[in-house]
Design brief:
Helix content of chain A: over 70%
CATH class of chain B: Mainly Alpha
Structural class of chain A: mainly alpha
Number of domains of chain A: 1
Order of helices and strands of chain B: HHH
Largest sheet of chain B: none
Number of helices of chain B: 3
CATH architecture of chain B: Orthogonal Bundle
Number of helices of chain A: 3
Radius of gyration of chain A: 14 Å
Shape of chain B: elongated
Shape of chain A: flat
Number of strands of chain B: 0
Number of domains of chain B: 1
Helix content of chain B: over 70%
Largest interface: A-B, 33 and 38 residues
Largest sheet of chain A: none
Strand content of chain A: under 5%
Structural class of chain B: mainly alpha
Number of strands of chain A: 0
Strand content of chain B: under 5%
Oligomer: heterodimer
Order of helices and strands of chain A: HHH
Distance between the termini of chain A: 30 Å
Chain lengths: ~70, ~90
């Protein structure tokens, strides 16, 4: 489980395309939430998931600012 | 196991902050670093851990929102997210 999260974090850092990078970053946050659930901290994982969804929406909105669809 | 993963998240975040030039990537690195700190705090399991993680969660969210807002403003002014091209800020 943690390995998938680490791979997703590396992909989020290394992928050139910002939108794909943000998707990989979302996967990382989801894996962190699952890690909290495994540790038995359900309330923390719910807070984390809510914050993660807000952050992802804002980041996707921000990367949509650029007019051309080219890789950044 | 979890503390090793937390250390990896922390290192990935530090690498991203130090090596990347894109503002959004730097913000992502900052959040991944925060994930590492949260995971470590939840792993060591001391008494105030959950309250502390909730606090860092909310503070991290607000800080990141401010950073993304500022980077959007910078993009509207300069036209790029690349920090090496932001020479107008030089003194």
């Amino acid at each position: 489980m943690s390995g998938i999260g680490i791979i997703a974090a590396v992909l989020a850092v290394e992928i050139k395309d910002l939108r794909r990078s943000i998707i990989a970053f979302g996967v990382t946050g989801f894996i962190i939430c699952l890690s909290f659930i495994i540790q038995g901290k359900i309330d923390l994982s719910i807070v984390k998931l809510g914050a993660e969804i807000c952050l992802l929406l804002y980041l996707v909105n921000t990367t949509g600012v650029e007019k051309d669809g080219k890789n950044r | 196991m979890m503390s090793t993963a937390a250390a990896f998240y922390f290192l990935i975040g530090i690498y991203c902050i130090m090596a990347k030039r894109n503002l959004i990537k730097i913000i992502i690195g900052l959040i991944i670093l925060q994930y590492g700190a949260d995971l470590y705090l939840s792993t060591i399991g001391f008494r105030m851990g959950e309250a502390l993680i909730s606090l860092t969660e909310i503070l991290g969210l607000t800080t990141t929102a401010v950073l993304v807002f500022l980077s959007k403003k910078i993009y509207n002014k300069i036209g790029t997210f690349d920090v090496s091209k932001m020479r107008r800020l030089k003194g």
